[in-house]
Design a protein that fits this description.
Rossmann fold; UDP-galactose 4-epimerase, domain 1; about 45% helix; alpha/beta; 16 strands; binds serine; binds nicotinamide-adenine-dinucleotide; six-stranded parallel β-sheet; 2 domains; about 15% strand; globular
């Protein structure tokens, strides 16, 4: 991995992977692309940036060849809640974008990283310690595209020898870029509201358990998987990875350790609640640990402290500055 192209580079995950990889490999070696202009100028000013629809295969191939790209991080997609509101668009982007990237990779010899998700599981998947290899019959359009994407990546590896790799990410928590329309977004929103207003109205029920991960671990997982010895990878495109599992009540209790006056109430969104209900409570990620050494660094307490520290220092309208109880 020396010259990298990222699709969806302005998104929640892309903005952080781009910053990390530009730091590691040099800004000129990491080409950022997205369908939007870069509002902050961060990615467009610090290195190459192209604005185009990832489904435009000719344009993608031209940029890949011009920069002699060897690895694509394909992150452009619609997330679960948006996909449920716009299912045909989600199918077009999530499948059409991936198919385009894989064809360009086949023609040019690139490796491809593609995130799958806890959304690839469904209501009849075992909910606790969800195994690596298990039943996958998702009921959301997002989940349908994620399972199909895992299979398509496997197909391109077996049929054409494309070096495809991927992770089933849980909900990602971060403070650089806001999340883009997912069911797990509450676990980010809650921190912004906690430091601004000392309270949060949650769109999921208080006892809804889901797997989660702090962004530094998500970036680490992607990079470590792409650097892993291919001879050890049995589950190339769909590694379960998790760092913590909690419900909104648990997260509120942890925030209260640092902002004692914090309050939470609930106004449940039936669409996102149904999606969350169909996903695992907590996955096992043994295959990732054995096949490429996965080991997360952030648990719920460490992530909570870091989110509150960063946001209360950065947000100008932060009124509830955290204090360290420990
Ligand atoms: P995001 O919505 O924050 O970002 C997606 C980016 O793709 C946006 O910047 C958007 O402008 C861009 N995009 C949309 N349509 C495009 C198109 N036609 N052509 C080019 N770019 C386009 O999403 P994210 O959270 O960064 O997710 C990245 C990947 O990780 C997705 O595959 C997602 O399913 C997966 N994932 C994310 C999470 C999470 O919690 N964020 C969890 C599991 C899996
Ligand atoms: N965080 C993502 C979502 O909720 C999970 O893939 O859509």
């Amino acid at each position: 991995m020396e010259r990298i192209l990222i699709t969806g580079a302005l998104g929640q995950l892309g903005s952080e992977i781009a910053a990390f990889l530009r730091g590691e490999y040099g800004a000129r070696e990491v080409v950022c692309t997205d369908i939007r202009d870069d509002p902050s100028g961060d990615r467009a000013e610090s290195g190459p940036f192209y604005r185009f629809d990832v489904r435009d295969g000719e344009r993608l191939a031209e940029v890949v060849r011009r920069h002699r790209i060897d690895t694509v991080y394909h992150l452009a997609a619609l997330l679960s809640a948006t996909a449920e509101a716009r299912p045909t668009e989600a199918w077009d982007l999530n499948m059409g974008g991936l198919a385009t990237v894989l064809e360009v990779a086949r023609e040019t010899g690139c490796a491809v990283f593609t995130p799958s998700s806890i959304g690839s599981f469904g209501p009849n998947t075992p909910k606790d310690w969800t195994p690596q290899d298990t039943l996958q019959r998702p009921t959301s359009m997002y989940g349908v595209t994620k399972v199909a994407g895992e299979l398509l990546c496997d197909y391109y590896f077996h049929r054409f020898g494309v070096d495809t790799r991927g992770l089933r990410y849980p909900g990602l928590i971060s403070n650089r870029t806001l999340p883009g329309g997912g069911t797990t977004d509450y676990a980010v929103d809650i921190f912004y509201e906690a430091v601004r207003h000392g309270r949060y109205t949650c769109f999921l029920k208080g006892d809804t358990y889901l797997d989660m991960m702090y962004m530094p671990d998500a970036v680490k997982a992607a990079v470590e998987l792409m650097d892993a010895d291919p001879g050890r990878l049995r589950h190339r495109n769909a590694f379960n990875v998790t760092a913590m599992s909690f419900c909104p009540e648990d997260l509120a209790a942890y925030i209260r350790r640092y902002i004692p006056a914090f309050e939470i109430d609930y106004h449940v969104d039936p669409v996102r609640q149904a999606i969350a209900h169909s996903w695992p409570n907590n996955m096992e990620d043994y295959a990732a640990r054995v096949e490429w050494g996965w080991n997360p660094e952030y648990d719920l307490d460490r992530m909570t402290r870091d989110m509150l520290t960063v946001l209360s220092a950065r947000l100008e309208d932060a009124h509830y500055v955290w204090h360290d109880a420990g």
